[in-house]
Specification:
- The structure holds 2 protein chains of 2 kinds.
- Chain A is α+β, with helices and mostly antiparallel strands.
- Chain A has 2 domains: 187 residues, ApbE-like domains (T-fold); 82 residues, Orthogonal Bundle (T-fold).
- Chain A contains 7 helices and 16 strands.
- In chain A, strands 1-2-6-7-10-13-14-15 form an 8-stranded antiparallel beta sheet.
- Chain A is globular, with a radius of gyration of 20 Å.
- Chain A starts with a strand and ends in a 5-residue tail after the last strand.
- Chain B has a single domain, classed as membrane protein fhac: a member of the omp85/tpsb transporter family (Porin), CATH 2.40.160.
- By secondary structure, chain B is mostly beta strands.
- The termini of chain B are far apart.
- In chain B, strand 2 and strand 3 form a beta hairpin.
- Helix content of chain B is 3%, strand content 59%.
- Chain B has a 16-stranded antiparallel β-barrel.
- The chains are: A alpha+beta, B mainly beta.
- The interface between A and B is large, with 46 and 28 residues.
Chain lengths: 308, 381
């Protein structure tokens, strides 16, 4: 009785999709255009790969002077500062500069002295941020909105769709998902969570009528060191080392930006993740280093894995 | 280890902090409280006339204000001040002997609404006063949405307490109490079709006779029932909406009326919206309405065989006669600036006995015409 319209596009270096139900093709196309434009707006504004982005402007002034920012950027920086405070320094938007010494393409670990030097350029506590202007005190310091930018874009795209009266569907930006509302028949959408070691296998299915789902894993960019240790791209800002406790963390929360931040923070904090994530409105799925799945599911969102 | 265990706190602040980010919405709620305040000023001009005779003119400026409060509440209120001038026919459509009237009416209402996730309720009060009439009313409404937001139910109850006087008869002072009940259901049928069915009933007790008409004696009880069905269809290709409705009305005076209404809401480029409307009503007369055929010896306005005591009920009120009526209208709205909308609407009403369907109209009445012209400006902030 009902049909869905799917719009796929690439942005933020990810394959993305917008799925809408309960509307005809014309309305869906108009709505997707607006939602995609909102995603691209955020990409252009915050991409560290674009010289004209706000993030590049801030990074280019590192070690020189403060940069005054607009109110949207200010609110994102406030959010990042709050995540840094809540996670006792684990979630740190300045940790991206560690990529300069970790060569994931070549699969090379940094020399200890190079890593120690680079760690001096990492740390939100070093940054001067007064709510209006930001100054990175040392040349070579940089910020990026990894872990929250794409998720924020998913939430904003959904807000734009809801404002246009859309009530059924979801926005999926490279696996960071925010639901607009249930399927037109009132049933939840079902999302598969991929297995962190077998990309053709599903380790859980998560059913959502609203809210968001975000996953952070050690399988996106990694190499295996000579001694067999797995080195993934999620780096602890305190010692510059890759996280090893969880293979993947999926979090269900009311907003995608919260789910994404909590997933990343869980990867970083390791063993305490289950306790830290124990709060109302949040469900999670942790895959430990041995491939064992741990779930907390107060709202019965997770379904047993099915064979591919 | 035990000491560190107790220090491990949940990251509850992350959700709260995320909600502070700009432009994100809270999880889906069926009943959403308004996020912006709205203010509107309107000026209504009304006039009606019969051939060779301009009857009544009304000029009514009004203001409306709605303010969201604490996220879950809204408070709205309006004030209107009418000035009425003209003359009212004392019986049927007779012109001679019509009394002049010049008066003003002041009215105001206030409504408070509480929004929860799936339901909302509101309480309202209204007051209206003019020198020969005063009305006070209170009402309560409740509505609830289904889990999938596709169905909404609503129920309402209202009471009004009216006082009726007369400038022709300073001794007249009568009351009227009315109780009203409404119930309805709205269903999103498809993505582009919305249907609604609502029922209304009211029971009143008190003075219904018109103190300005003679002879006019009506029952002191009136029951009124309405059945309303609406269907709104959206045409995606045109980005237009076609709202249609049928309303059936019956009351204990014997009046039966059917009203069909349709409109076409067409948004256009540049912030313009055009809405032409068309409405048709056909009505059966009240049981005690009498035609303009008068007693041979007493003459107008007395019906044949009239005595001071019989018949028990009678009225020459043209509004209780059998007729058909057509209203055509056009509304033009223009978004002057973001969040500022100006609108202009014009409606023309014409009532004729010959336009009744399913029976003949009341004979001997002049056609009746009325025009409404309204200009308004509204602002959300």
């Amino acid at each position: 009785m009902w049909s869905v319209h799917r719009h796929a596009f690439t942005a933020m270096a990810s394959p993305n999709e917008i799925v809408l139900g309960g509307v005809d093709a014309g309305q869906a196309a108009d709505a997707c255009e607006i939602a995609e434009a909102e995603v691209r707006r955020i990409e252009y504004k915050y991409s560290r790969y674009r010289d004209d982005s706000v993030v590049s402007a801030i990074n280019a002034r590192a070690g020189r002077n403060a940069v005054a920012v607009d109110s949207e950027t200010a609110q994102l920086l406030d959010f990042a500062a709050e995540l840094h405070r809540q996670s006792d320094g684990l979630f740190d938007i300045t940790s991206g500069s560690l990529r300069r010494v970790w060569d994931f393409k070549a699969g090379r670990e940094p020399r200890p002295d190079a890593l120690a030097l680079q760690l001096q350029r990492v740390g939100w506590h070093r940054v001067s941020w007064d709510g209006r202007a930001i100054a990175l005190p040392q040349h070579g310091m940089e910020i990026d909105f990894g872990g929250i930018g794409k998720e924020y874009a998913a939430d904003r795209a959904v807000a734009a769709l809801r404002e246009r009266g859309l009530r059924h569907g979801f926005v999926n930006l490279g696996g960071d998902i925010r639901v607009i509302g249930p399927r037109p028949d009132g049933q939840p959408w079902v999302f598969a969570v991929r297995h962190p070691r077998h990309d053709d296998q599903v380790c859980a299915r998560i059913a959502l009528r609203d809210g968001a789902l975000a996953t952070s894993g050690d399988y996106e960019r990694f190499f295996i060191a000579a001694d067999g240790r797995r080195c993934c791209h999620i780096l602890d800002p305190r010692n510059g080392q890759p996280v090893r406790h969880w293979q993947a963390v999926s979090v269900v929360a009311p907003l995608c930006v919260a789910a994404g931040a909590l997933a990343t923070m869980s990867m970083l904090i390791g063993a305490q993740a289950a306790t830290r994530l124990g709060m109302p409105g949040v469900g999670f799925l942790l895959v430990d280093a041995g491939g064992q799945v741990h779930t907390h599911d107060p709202e019965q969102l997770l379904q047993p894995p099915t064979s591919p | 280890m035990a000491a560190t265990e107790t220090e491990v706190k949940a990251w509850g602040g992350v959700l709260a902090a995320a909600l502070l980010l700009p432009g994100l919405q809270a999880p889906a709620l069926a009943e959403t409280a308004p996020e912006q305040a709205e203010m509107a000023v309107k000026l209504l001009h009304y006039r009606d006339r019969q051939p060779g005779f301009d009857r009544i003119k009304v000029t009514a400026p009004s203001v409306y204000l709605m303010v969201p409060v604490a996220g879950r509440w809204s408070v709205e209120g309006s004030l209107v001040n009418d000035s009425v001038s003209g003359a009212s026919p004392r019986y049927h459509s007779a012109v001679s002997g019509a009394s002049r009237l010049e008066e003003t009416r002041k009215a105001g209402d206030l409504r408070v609404t509480r929004y929860n996730d799936r339901d909302a309720w509101s309480l309202g009060a209204a007051y209206s006063t003019e020198h020969d009439y005063r009305s006070r009313s209170v009402s309560a409404d409740y509505r609830r949405s289904s889990e999938d937001n596709n169905t909404t139910w609503n129920v309402g109850v209202g009471f009004s307490d009216d006082w009726i006087g007369s400038s022709n008869d300073p001794t007249l002072s009568r009351g009227r109490d009315t109780t009203q009940l409404t119930a309805g259901v709205t269903q999103a049928w498809t993505a582009v079709d919305l249907v609604q069915v609502s029922l209304g009933a009211s029971w009143g007790h008190g003075m219904y006779s018109d103190p300005y008409k003679f002879p006019d004696r009506r029952p002191d009880r009136r029951e009124q029932y309405t059945l309303m069905t609406r269907w709104n269809h959206h045409f995606s290709d045109w980005k237009a909406t076609l709202p249609s409705s049928w309303r059936y009305y019956a009351d204990s005076f014997g009046v039966r009326a059917n009203t069909l209404e349709t409109a076409w809401v067409q948004p256009m480029s540049g912030g313009w919206t055009l809405t032409p409307t068309l409405r048709y009503t056909t009505q059966r007369a009240a049981k005690f309405y009498y035609d303009p055929v008068y007693d041979a010896s007493l003459g107008a306005p007395f019906p044949p065989g009239y005595t001071a005591t019989s018949p028990q009920y009678l009225s020459p009120d043209q509004r209780l006669s059998a007729f058909g009526a057509i209203t055509v209208g056009l509304k033009v709205a223009y978004e002057v600036a973001p969040r500022w909308t100006a609108d202009f609407s014009l409606e023309h009403y014409e009532q004729r006995a010959a336009w009744r369907l399913g029976g003949s109209g009341s004979p001997g009445l002049a056609r009746f015409q009325a025009d409404w012209l309204q200009v308004g400006l509204s602002h959300r902030f």
